[in-house]
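Long-time lurker, first post. I've been practising inverse folding by hand and with some scripts of my own, and I keep getting stuck on stretches where the structure tokens seem ambiguous. Below is the full token string for one chain I'm working on. Before anyone asks, I'm not after the true native sequence, just a reasonable design that respects the backbone. If someone could post their per-position residues I'd love to compare against what I wrote down in my notebook.
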């Protein structure tokens, strides 16, 4: 995956709070996608809300870091995105939101942008206070995506994905798929508190995978409004393969097999490895939002 070296990055779409102190608070664990992620971690890793940092009291210091607001200072162009991981994520956020802005407009609707928040350790959200243990998540309460960049290392070391820049892009695009679901009313209408292979929770996640694939299909043709040229200039078959590999790595069956030694479909919240690959591939193959109806 390559970015246009001369393109300007829009860092206003990312809030970099790495290294800051985050006030504690009590989360509504069962609410929204943060709740689903907490449930997922609880089912697979045997940890409860307190251990995940979803219920805290008082100010909690995030790990010390010199990267506070670093993206605003260092991520200026596509050249930076080709050289730095955090700048690459900024560029992916820009590309994903450029695509959805144009797709909503084509359909006669208005896309409301969402910020991605970079944090380390712990972060306060409208869905409660969360730690890095819950992984990347979208909070419907404030319509923001939350990401500790350390998750990309976990994707390889803990979940067994091959990694690569597009594996990271898939994760980001998936979370923005949830934002699209929020804007279109899908999240509000889904019964995400239920689990199981046929549950709405799984259908929501698989649809977000499909939406990530739809963006991937259009990534190299979606034009940056500031330049009139695509921000992403190259996306190879190997890149898509890395995305498919990442999708499989976070399948419920793969995670359950790895961490509890058995597969229990009745507790699934995100879908199997095969399902996640299938729906990402469907979106990428067709580039058609209408082909992502996982509820039918």
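-- Answer (accepted) --
I ran through it position by position. Result:
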């Amino acid at each position: 995956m390559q970015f246009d070296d001369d393109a300007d990055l829009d860092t206003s779409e990312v809030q970099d709070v790495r290294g800051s102190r985050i006030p504690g608070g009590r989360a509504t664990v069962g609410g929204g996608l943060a709740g689903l992620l907490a449930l997922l971690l609880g089912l697979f890793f045997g940890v409860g809300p307190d251990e995940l940092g979803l219920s805290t009291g008082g100010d909690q210091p995030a790990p010390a870091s010199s990267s506070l607001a670093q993206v605003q200072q260092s991520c200026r162009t596509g050249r930076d995105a080709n050289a730095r991981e955090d700048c690459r994520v900024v560029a992916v956020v820009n590309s994903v939101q450029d695509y959805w802005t144009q797709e909503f407009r084509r359909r006669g609707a208005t896309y409301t942008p969402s910020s991605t928040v970079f944090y380390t350790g712990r972060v306060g959200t409208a869905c409660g206070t969360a730690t890095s243990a819950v992984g990347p998540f979208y909070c419907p309460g404030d319509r923001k995506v939350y990401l500790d960049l350390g998750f990309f290392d976990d994707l390889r070391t803990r979940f067994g994905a091959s990694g690569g820049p597009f594996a990271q892009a898939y994760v980001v695009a998936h979370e923005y798929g949830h934002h699209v679901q929020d804007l279109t009313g899908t999240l509000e209408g889904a019964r995400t508190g239920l689990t199981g292979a046929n549950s709405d929770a799984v259908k929501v996640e698989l649809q977000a995978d499909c939406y990530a694939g739809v963006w991937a299909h259009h990534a190299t043709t979606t034009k940056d409004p500031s330049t009139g040229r695509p921000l992403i200039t190259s996306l190879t078959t190997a890149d898509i393969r890395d995305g498919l590999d990442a999708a499989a790595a976070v399948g419920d069956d793969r995670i359950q097999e790895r961490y509890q030694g058995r597969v229990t479909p009745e507790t699934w919240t995100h879908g199997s490895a095969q399902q996640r690959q299938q729906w990402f591939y469907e979106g990428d193959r067709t580039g058609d939002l209408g082909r992502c109806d996982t509820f039918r």
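A couple of notes from the structure itself: The mean pLDDT is 86. The longest strand covers residues 115-118. Happy to go over any region you disagree with.
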